[in-house]
Amino acid sequence: MRGRRRFRTAVAAATAALLCGGALSGCTAGEPEKAPVEASAPGPKPRPAPSWDVSPASVAAVGDSMTRAFDACSLLSDCPEASWATGTDTAVNSLALRLLGPGKVATRSWNLARTGARMADLPAQMAGAAAEKPELVTVMMGANDACRATPDLMTPVADFRASFETALARLRAGAPKAQVYVASVPDLKRLWSTGRVSPTGLEVWKLGICGAMLADAEDLGPAAERRRSAVRDRVVAYNGVLEEVCAKDARCRYDGGAVFGFRFDGGQLSPWDWFHPSRDGQARLADLAYRRITKE
Question: What CATH number is attached to the domain comprising 203?
């Protein structure tokens, strides 16, 4: 009996030594194992980003003269039926026509843009858009912030940012689920480069269109080049703001610089001012927007 007890004692001691392994300080034979410390409960899982609807059923457009199709149909007048965003002209084939069909454009789209508007005017336009509860809002704004009489009158970048942030906040207050498509500001220097070869364009520009860029359009000297480059740099900065602010909103899509990078040719510029998009130019804007909005 004493032999069997000694055998059991020896086995127990050996088992305890194997369990301790000598690696954990303070482990002694016969000491019960301690319960493992429970991991803290995981925090709440982040909410997934809302999926993008590629076929919204209503469209509100905010912006400036480009969205009003100024000088697209006749001299010195808006032509909203030719608007890239909400127009009814089948030759343009606007974004609203493509998304909604011709039968619903009149009742399910709203053009709230205003010729001459700058980014400071966007919050009020956005509040108006929110009141309509649209499923999609298009934004094309900023050209007039750069197109001042002289470069020193251009909207400061910080002010531009503040107004755009306020505009999105106004929309979210009234239409929290509305999707937003933000078009980049066009490359005004490229428009100058395209239009300056037209005698008509040169004469019209002398009337004061976008003086910061288009004044003395035939002057290729260093001072004129610095002036135009300053305007272009400001447009690039504006587009950086549009992209950054839009990226913070899960329901906002920036065009990735598509409008800025588009090369408008002579046929896509208004024959009356060689600056605003013609009907064909409006059609190209509609195409750029539609491709971005319907991308899965």
Answer: 3.40.50.1110
In a domain, 81, yes or no: yes
User: How many structural domains compose the chain?
Assistant: 1
Q: Which domain holds residue 192?
A: 59-293
CA 66 to chain centre: 17
Q: Is residue 86 part of a domain?
A: yes
Strand ranges inside the chain, DSSP E: 59-63, 109-111, 136-140, 179-182, 252-254
267 phi-psi bin (left φ>0, alpha ψ -120 to 50, beta other): alpha
Other residues' Cβ atoms within 10 Å of the Cβ of residue 63 = 27
Other residues' Cβ atoms within 10 Å of the Cβ of residue 129: 28
Contact (CB, 8 A) for 188 and 195? no
Q: What are phi and psi of 137, to 5 degrees?
A: -120, 130
Q: Give φ, ψ of 136 to 5 degrees.
A: -140, 140
Is residue 140 included in any domain, yes or no? yes
Which residues pair with residue 254 across a beta bridge? 182
Q: Which two tokens stand for residue 113?
A: 């843009």
For 63, 129, 282, the CA distances from 66, given in Å and listed in that order, are: 8, 17, 8
pLDDT string in tens for the chain (296-residue length) = 444 444 344 434 433 333 333 433 333 334 444 444 445 556 556 666 689 999 999 999 999 999 999 999 999 999 999 999 999 999 999 999 999 999 999 999 999 999 999 999 999 999 999 999 999 999 999 999 999 999 999 999 999 999 999 999 999 999 999 999 999 999 999 999 999 988 988 999 998 899 999 999 999 999 999 999 999 999 999 999 999 999 999 999 999 999 999 999 989 999 999 999 999 999 999 999 999 999 98
State how far the Cα of 242 lies from the Cα of 31, in Å rounded to an integer.
66
Specify if 24 maps to a domain.
no
Tokens 């197109």 correspond to what residue?
147
Gap between the terminal Cα atoms of the chain: 81
pTM of this prediction exceeds 0.85: no
